[in-house]
């Protein structure tokens, strides 16, 4: 790989080589800001096999964290291990970028961010899908006033359950999973990107009694314990005055609900799926209520997983804030935790943190530019 404009590539060690890691590996060759140097897993043999396929060494987690040729740890472990691995990486003097959620709770996440600040290190977190042309074009349309002043937004993401496609889905039904912590970060990160931080939330959640079993792979037919709410509804009050409603569910077999819309004083914006990078944005205005597609106006083109890490690498080299930041991920985690509290205690819950809106990604930008 080549080097980014402003310095040598950030050397990346990946911890956790499960299903999601392949999406990162696919994009590393197109990101000269990053150089993959090692991979690790609790299953060392698996790490060695993946390392051989990627042309790097595969090793144990301890060895990777101690390695001199790793500048940043890409933490792709299960949610229950996110905080532990991040803490160990920071203690070893390495930056951290992780999959969502940042941790299982704000109590776990706060010391991670404090340690990073103390050591002068960066923490980044998925989702970086919001840096693609889809969400960034929607943000540009909102900032340009194409639907007037935003009043509210509605999200309705649903599926029947990840066990229908994932060969090892048990962790989706344990703390750190469920539709809120698994899928919520895509939508909540987008909403904060659009409208700024959330000040308070209310909400409610439930779960059905239906038995869930793995549908595919070698463990097909295995029952899955369910220890999280599988249908969650939340109302978010943004500090800016916008009110967002969010429904996320593993209980829906079919739906006609729009996935993601923003309603303004002069029109409605059809926001693309923020679990994807580059789907089109649509708009209907008060003057013309027929839907039409907007031209791409912002965002990293042809992006994929790893672009948030490359954005962080360039920000480190140029001493700028990175967009997919730990502070933003902490705020999203705080929102989700507040929704759970609101559901349990039947109260409205304040959200204390106030991260700034990340900078827009200009049209035509690459991670190695700003």
Total beta strands? 17
Strand order of the largest sheet: 16-15-14-13-7-12-11-8-17
Largest sheet: 9 strands, mixed
Termini Cα gap: 20 Å
Query: How much helix, percentage-wise, in residues?
Result: 25-40%
Please report the number of helical segments: 9
* Averaged pLDDT: 96
Order of helices and strands: EHEHEHEHEHEHEHEEEEEEEEEHHE
Could you please describe the fold and organization of this structure?
The protein is an alpha/beta fold. The protein is built from nine helices and 17 strands. The protein has a nine-stranded mixed β-sheet with strand order 16-15-14-13-7-12-11-8-17. A six-stranded parallel β-sheet has the order 3-2-1-4-5-6, with helices on both faces. A two-stranded antiparallel ribbon has the order 9-10. Helix 4 (82-91) runs parallel beside helix 5. Residues 1-5 have low confidence and may be disordered.
What's the topology here?
Blueprint lengths: L9 E6 L5 H7 L6 E7 L3 H11 L2 E3 L1 H6 L5 E4 L6 H10 L3 E4 L7 H14 L3 E3 L7 H11 L6 E9 L19 H18 L2 E9 L5 E2 L9 E2 L6 E8 L4 E7 L10 E5 L2 E4 L11 E4 L6 E2 L13 H12 L7 H20 L3 E2 L20
Parallel strand pairs: 1-2, 1-4, 2-3, 4-5, 5-6, 7-12
Antiparallel strand pairs: 7-13, 8-11, 8-17, 9-10, 11-12, 13-14, 14-15, 15-16
């Amino acid at each position: 790989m080549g080097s980014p404009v402003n310095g040598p590539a950030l050397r990346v060690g990946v911890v956790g080589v499960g299903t999601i890691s392949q999406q990162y590996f696919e994009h590393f060759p197109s990101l000269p800001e990053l150089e993959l140097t090692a991979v690790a897993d609790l299953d060392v043999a698996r790490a060695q096999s993946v390392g051989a396929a990627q042309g790097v060494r595969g090793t144990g987690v301890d060895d990777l964290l101690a390695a001199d040729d790793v500048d940043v740890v890409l933490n792709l472990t299960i949610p229950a291990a996110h905080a532990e691995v991040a803490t160990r990486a920071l203690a070893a003097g390495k930056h951290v970028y992780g999959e969502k959620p940042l941790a299982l709770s704000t109590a776990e996440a706060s010391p991670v961010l404090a340690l990073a600040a103390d050591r002068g290190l960066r923490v980044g977190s998925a989702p970086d899908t919001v840096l693609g042309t889809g969400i960034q074009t929607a943000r540009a349309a909102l900032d340009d006033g194409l639907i007037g002043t935003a009043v509210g937004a509605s999200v309705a993401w649903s599926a029947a359950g990840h066990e229908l496609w994932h060969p090892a889905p048990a962790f989706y039904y344990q703390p750190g999973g469920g539709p809120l912590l698994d899928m919520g970060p895509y939508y909540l990160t987008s909403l904060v990107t659009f409208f700024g931080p959330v000040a308070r939330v209310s909400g409610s959640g439930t779960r059905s009694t239906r038995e869930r079993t793995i549908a595919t792979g070698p463990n097909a037919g295995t029952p899955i314990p369910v220890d999280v709410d599988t249908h969650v509804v939340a109302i978010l009050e943004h500090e800016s005055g916008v009110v967002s409603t969010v429904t996320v569910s593993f209980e829906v077999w079919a739906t006609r609900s729009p996935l993601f819309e923003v309603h303004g004083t002069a029109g409605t914006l059809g926001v693309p799926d923020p679990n994807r990078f580059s789907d089109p944005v649509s708009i209907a205005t008060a003057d013309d209520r027929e839907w039409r597609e907007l031209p791409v106006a912002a965002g990293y083109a042809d992006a994929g997983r790893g672009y948030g890490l490359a954005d962080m690498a360039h920000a480190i080299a140029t001493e700028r804030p990175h967009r997919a930041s730990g502070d933003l991920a902490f705020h999203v985690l705080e929102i989700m935790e507040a929704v759970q509290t609101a559901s349990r205690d039947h109260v409205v819950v304040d959200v204390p943190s106030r991260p700034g809106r990340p900078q827009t990604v200009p049209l035509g930008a690459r991670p190695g530019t700003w």
